[in-house]
Amino acid sequence: MRQRAIPCWQFRGGSSKGIYFKAADLPSEDTLRNQVILHAVSGSTGADKRQVDGLGGAHPLTSKVAVVGPSTHPEADIDYLFVQVVVGQAAVDTSPNCGNILSGIGAFALETGMMTQSGSEARIRVHMVNSGNLCELVFPLVDGLPDYDGDCRIDGVPGTAAPIVCRYADLAGSACGALLPTGSPIDVFDGVAVTCIDNGMPVVVMKAEDLGITGYESAAELNQDETLKAKVESIRLQAGLAMGLGDVTDKVVPKMSLVSRPSQGGTLNTRTFIPKVCHDAIGVLGAVSVASAAVYEGSPAHQVAEPVNGPSRRMVVEHPSGDFIVDLELDESTQPPTILTAGLLRTTRLLASGVTYVPQSVWPETALPSEGSP
User: Structure pTM?
Assistant: First the structure.
């Protein structure tokens, strides 16, 4: 029996890479849609760490999917559902957002004809289905299509490209329902002080020194430290419950960020686990949450951060392959200050387009695709 062909596009979004689908080309039922995505990315068993039988790159940063459809939000132009395929497990996770993959959504919408824009600049408001939040993407156009050439450089990506300005609003509590899901900027698990925060991404922030490391080790070194990883995972499981996320054993959130004093002139330094593998960089929305944690006096992040004051704060979050700039706008009339917006700079590039194939046993030809949004 022949396999079923599904149109797909591959983009580099920020420092990640993913497969982008139109919602109308996938099953409308969630469980079947996730099984189709799992087979497309990881292959027949869904649990191959190499993902040799699928399109995934055998790493959390290259095992990502975007499902894009017409907007169901009155203030947005388009819907975006993020799906993280869990490497080495027959599982997907739709609980978090992904700001890197988000940065390619506007380009995808124009390249596929889902939207049209004119002039020299596109402005596309994206509804992040995972959390219900909105983000405006602003990027240059040439003849109605994305201009990928430019001199913008972001860490974790070779070369330069055209800038994409990502303007987020109302990120607080994207997955947990509150910026500080436990109600406090400081909690203690296994004797370690942490900040449980969700400003676009659920993250648990703690000082590296409290876990017996400097925080300047390479990602490879930390991934070989089984004692450290066991400590981090123990805290993650407890924090997940405290944040209202339930049993997070098989979830990719919360992310775990170990912070230390900056070493390259930034605001603070990070080593981030997503969730059990130390990241070579830091995720877009993860960086927003870590930067936000540093706003709270006495928190682990605030203790190691270089002072940044005022209603407009540029926070430079260092990571193993460079740094990430997060611009926060605060309302300082409240105590603690209210975080109003976060602005970030990303780039994207269309890498490939065509079809991917899944077995008829997973999705028979007699089963029609969806006609709606994710």
Answer: 0.76
